[in-house]
Amino acid sequence: MTLRLFNTLTGQLDPLEPADGKALRMYACGPTVYDYGHIGNFRTFLQVDVLRRFLLLSGMRVRHVMNITDVDDKIIRNSLEAGIPIGEYTARYVKAFFEDMEALRIQRPEEIARATENIPQMVALVEKLAAAGAAYKTEDGSWYFRLAAFPEYGKLSKKDLSGMEDGARVDVDEYEKDSARDFALWKAAKPGETSWETAIGNGRPGWHIECSAMAMEYLGESLDLHAGGEDLMFPHHENEIAQSETATHKQFARHWMHVRFLLVDGRKMSKSEGNFYTPRDLLLRGFKASAIRLALIAVPYRRQFNFTFDSLTDATNAIDRLRTFRARLTAGNFATGENSAIQEAAKKTAGEFRDALDDDLNTAEALAPVFELVRAGNTAIDQGQFFAGDRDAILPLLEDFDAVFDVLEDRDAEATRRALEWAKETGRMADVAPELLAAQSLTDEAIETLVAERTAAKKARNFARADQIRNELAEKGVVIEDSKDGVRWKRK
Ligand code: AMP
Ligand code: ZN
Fold first, then answer.
1. Is the domain defined by 4-259 classed in CATH 3.40.50.620?
2. Which of 118, 214, 264, 367 has a CA positioned 20 to 30 A from the CA of residue 250?
3. Which of 41, 71, 226, 306 has most ligand 1 atoms within 8 Å of CB, for mutation?
4. Is 68 in the pocket of ligand 1 (CB under 6 A)?
5. 168-213: per-residue pLDDT in tens?
6. What pLDDT digit, counting tens, does each position of 147-173 carry?
7. Residues of the chain with CATH 1.10.730.10
8. Is the CB of 75 under 6 A from ligand 1?
9. Atom of ligand 1 nearest to the CA of 43
């Protein structure tokens, strides 16, 4: 089966396939780097990561481009206030963004396109639109897109634009909710602001033209897929379509994916509402990077997700269960043979896992059978009814699972360590949870005592307790290695 993904443009599930039969060319709107990203932003990036990874697992090649908006009103305003050039201002947040991507194990797209490095392409696109009579220059030297030049405007968000006033304009990057207006393609320079001297005048690009120009620069005039959060559907994506299709007379993107919001108490998580957490905030509160990742992807992308701390605790427990199970499989000494019920269950799980993701990336339904299998496997092991053939059937399945979910390898301590370093550098140690600080200061003696207790527990065949101690130490960044010569431990 191939993945059927909801397409905002057609309003139905459509198969997602590369038009050229080779690689899927996808563009996802990236961050505006005026501040740290919050977990709402990362929910969108994570869900796109799930898509990307599932396509790769299904054997498809992808060419994935993400932009970084490194010039806009807020960036200019904030850098002016800080008295530094915009490049210096955004550098910190670009770096932070990539660190957060890494902590959350979001795969890097094939191409990262920065707005400030693609100005000539944007200028060329404005010129093309001007030549087609779809762009006009205003007295102050700014350029606008004439909505009347694109009668199909509204086809993505299905907005009724009757009553729209010809020539009414907006020059801000953020619209009031429902107003469709001629929008800025290029903003004339104001005194003191960063600007580029170009053939269409001295100024800087509007947000919408950035994405059109960069998507077409790196992926060609017609994309297989364009993705972003649900708030981008209108006006941003609608405007991208208007600009691109007016310039090329080709369909800009065949498939549009919109990730629904992360909410807090029923409201959109956003900077302006002040109801947001960054991944760093959560790491400093003692949550693991893997748990943040799983919590943000476990609810399918097409459902809004009301964020709670409980969801992070649930994800933490779920990951523990998975990791412990895998450790039991890899460390266990199983007799040759097979348990037919486990073989059956493994086959069924593999099928259900793929089917759920093929069905519009239903992550919740993909997870459920995996946990069922873990339960069945654990029971079989406890009862001595689990064999080498069962292990060999389940391990590859866990690998496939992890190719998409990527939570099994424990790299959490590293992400937490980096967050702590950042807290130190930026004077945020007061935000660090006391338990986290305590864990960081676990003494060698305390570790020795726990390791000895674990050895005793193993001798007494109390494996649950032994595993528990191993996990506890692992959480605190201590790894235990069993060898012929005894037990060794080290700090990560
Ligand atoms: P920005 O950095 O504001 O341009 O946003 C980056 C991405 O995050 C965009 O795709 C937005 O649609 C998305 N986004 C913003 N807020 C949320 C939220 N609360 N939940 C999910 N996605 C969001
Ligand atoms: Zn965009």
1. yes
2. 118
3. 41
4. no
5. 666 555 544 345 689 999 999 999 899 999 999 999 999 999 999 9
6. 999 999 999 999 877 666 665 666 555
7. 267-405
8. no
9. 21
Looking at per-residue pLDDT, the higher value among 439 and 163 belongs to 439
Give 382 Cα–ligand 2 centroid separation in angstroms.
Answer: 52
What would you report as the CA-atom Rg of the chain, rounded to the nearest whole angstrom? 26
Q: Tell me the three state secondary structure of residue 13.
A: strand
- CB–CB of 423/432 below 8 Å? yes
**Closest Cα to atom 8 of ligand 1:** 41
State the pLDDT at residue 43: 98
Cβ-contact 239, 246 below 8 angstroms: no
Largest CA-CA distance found in the chain, in angstroms, rounded: 85
- The answer to whether the CB of 465 is under 6 A from ligand 1 is no
Our answer on whether the CB atom of 109 is closer than 6 Å to any ligand 1 atom is no
Indicate the pTM of the whole model.
Answer: 0.90
Is domain 267-405 annotated with CATH 2.70.98.40?
Answer: no
Distance 40 CA to ligand 1 centre (A): 6
The CB of 67 under 6 Å from ligand 1? The reply is no
Q: What's the whole-number average pLDDT of the chain?
A: 93
pLDDT of residue 177: 39
Identify the weakest region by mean pLDDT among 47-56, 132-141, 174-183, 345-354: 174-183
Give the pLDDT score at 476.
76
SS3 for 152-172, per residue? CCCCCCCCCCCCCCCCCEECC
Q: Which of 8, 27, 34, 44 to mutate to test ligand 1, by most ligand atoms within 8 A of the CB atom?
A: 44
Taking the CA of residue 261 as reference, the ligand 1 atom at the shortest distance is 20
